[in-house]
Amino acid sequence: MHPIIFQTNFFTLHSLWLFLGVALLVSTYTLIKLSDRNSLKIQFLSENSIRIFICVIFIARITAVITNFSAYFYELSTNTLLQLFYIWDKGLSLWGGVLGLLIAMFLICKKSTDQNFFKWMDVIIPSIIIGLAIVHIGTFFDGIGYGKPTGLPWGVNFANPAVKYTVPIHPTQIYAFIYSTIIVSGLTLLSQTEKIKTIEPAGFIGLLGAIAYLFFSFMEEFLRGDDTYLLLGIRIPQIIIFLLLIAVAVIFYLRYYHKKIGITHFLTKQ
Hints:
The protein is mostly helical. It has one domain (15-71, 89-268). The protein has helices at residues 15-37, 43-47, 49-67, 69-72, 78-83, 94-111, 117-142, 172-191, 194-197, 204-220, 236-256, 262-268; strands at residues 4-7, 12-14, 230-231, 234-235.
């Protein structure tokens, strides 16, 4: 566990930020390649990059504050209010950022007459997942998102006071890296098959990737040992992931297997 890669009196390089930076570069490269392969103009994203960035940061921060409310509002003062704007304190929600990106893309595509939201999802979702795989390595080194105690031979010890266990625990971050990599590999192979290429309407690869990632994330939550808010004894993040999984699964069903409900027209007109 190495939360800090490099440190001087003037600068500190956190492992999480390092891997996040690498993830952004790899995701961007993947997005460019997939966009070109799917005849999508990457200029569309660059032209709207500021709006997308603002939406991602805003929702990622809001989500982080809501899910860690007591950490930000331990007292009501000017200082605590100012801390809401300190986005460099690693207080950005991964799920919030992804949600912010999808919301931004949906709104921008709806305003454009020649852009298909679901076609963009076929290239954005795999790019996001490969980025998340890299970020999970960063969370492992940073010691966040850790698991419960385990007697399995691959259990790890974290020498960090922020980790509440002193016994071997599940390396859930590594689990997430593994299933993220498998999902991306599967989507890549699947997208190259002739049968998948002929599926209409667009969005099959993107929605399938989202369902797979959400499912494994939901299962991962059973092994998580880090503190979070509970509702009826269930982790709040797990509830959110479950609701997102159901929502995406319903959209997938309506878009590809059900043709007789009114909402299907809305889901398939792009």
